[in-house]
Amino acid sequence: MSLPLHDYQRYGRQMIIDGFGLPGQLRLRAASVAVVGAGGLGCPALQYLGAAGVGRLAIIDHDRVELSNLQRQILHNEETVGMYKAESAALALRRVNAELTIDVHTTALTPENAIALLQPYDIILDCTDNMPTRYLLSDAAVALGKPLVSGAAQKLEGQMCVYNLGAQGPCYRCLYPVPPPRAAVGTCEELGILGAVTGIIGNMQALETIKIIVGVNDPTPMLLLFAALGTPPFRSIKLRARKPTCPACSSPTGQLASVTSTDYVQFCGGPNPNWLEQGLLPGGTGHRVLPKDLQDTISSGKPFKIIDVRPSIEYGICKLPGSENVPLKNILSCPEKIISDNANSGDLYIVCRLGNDSQLAAHALRQNSSGTIIKDVIGGLRAWSSQIDPEFPIY
């Protein structure tokens, strides 16, 4: 077998690597990879898989491009904001190589469609950011007998692992038979993420996928950990083989009874809270006020004080004039001190980013106050920006 003539020039720099050669490039050309998630991890993974010459790529993502994505999701740009991420990513890949075969799926991966969507592909990449989909992908990979290259990243840290590889390769359930408590799982929006970190993990996923296809990978189960501020930044942990009691990869049939019969959302503690909506709930009578009420108080000349309960790093990004920063954890640990320090400040107005932490802070303060009037702002600073001051930054 041979390649089209122009591919010798396109892929020549990698074909001359020892252990790669023409056979390796032909394996890539014949391979098919499904990438679930075209975000911070999926974009760099797709970019390098496409550039390396993987013959067929599937992009599965039902989300649309937002301005906040562009800091890390490198296949998208200002012109594709509002477009499906899968379509935007495919458009960028075809600009690099118009001959790529790309299957675009703008539908959410569910227990009902996972097997059908993933069946045609040799390798599955988990580039998602939520627990239910991680368990679903792992179970589907086991059911289909395909390796799963999984990545995750938050803040300045990330990890990458290959599951269900070979006869003894563990699956995700082997390592994490029980999902963590819902309250312990944060998102990039809540915790933050440096774009370069997702780039590193996504590139490592692409690299590991290429190694598996070409046949130069180490089959030993390993978990790669990355910490941007660590010394050294990379660590590898050797994993045990399949867990004999795993209900997925070690069951008598080699898989769960049926992927479609599992409610992965409930298994992982229920749906993600909609913090934006919860922050807009009215709450108890007289306890929560609209941003307009706070504005009226500011204009009235009456004594009052604004306490901003966001972390200090967020307070440094933007703040209401005259407000004081007292992070939520400080209030919850010693609410009586906050009351004492502000005994003569007039009414207390508690604000946060979306109007959720302010409710917790206000409740703790009321429990320790007999006379001070304590209110928190519905919708927080996000609502202040949309209803009062459109020049107030949103992040």
Automatic annotation (TrEMBL):
Highest taxon listed in the record's lineage: Eukaryota
InterPro entries in the cross-refs: MOCS3/Uba4, Rhodanese-like_dom, Rhodanese-like_dom_sf, ThiF/MoeB/HesA, ThiF_NAD_FAD-bd, Ubiquitin-activating_enz
Cofactor note: Binds 1 zinc ion per subunit.
UniProt keyword ATP-binding present: yes
Domain Rhodanese: 300-393
Pathway(s) where this gene product acts: tRNA modification; 5-methoxycarbonylmethyl-2-thiouridine-tRNA biosynthesis
Residues binding ATP, per UniProt: 40, 61, 68-72, 85, 129-130
One Pfam family, short name: Rhodanese
Residue positions binding Zn(2+): 171, 174, 246, 249
Cofactor: Zn(2+)
The keyword Amino-acid biosynthesis belongs to this UniProt entry's keyword annotation: no
Keywords noted in UniProt: ATP-binding, Cytoplasm, Metal-binding, Multifunctional enzyme, Nucleotide-binding, Nucleotidyltransferase, Transferase, tRNA processing, Ubl conjugation pathway, Zinc
GO cellular component, one term: cytosol
SUPFAM superfamilies: Activating enzymes of the ubiquitin-like proteins
GO BP field: protein urmylation; tRNA wobble position uridine thiolation
Subcellular location: Cytoplasm, Cytosol
Record family assignment: In the N-terminal section; belongs to the HesA/MoeB/ThiF family. UBA4 subfamily.
Protein name: Needs CLA4 to survive protein 3
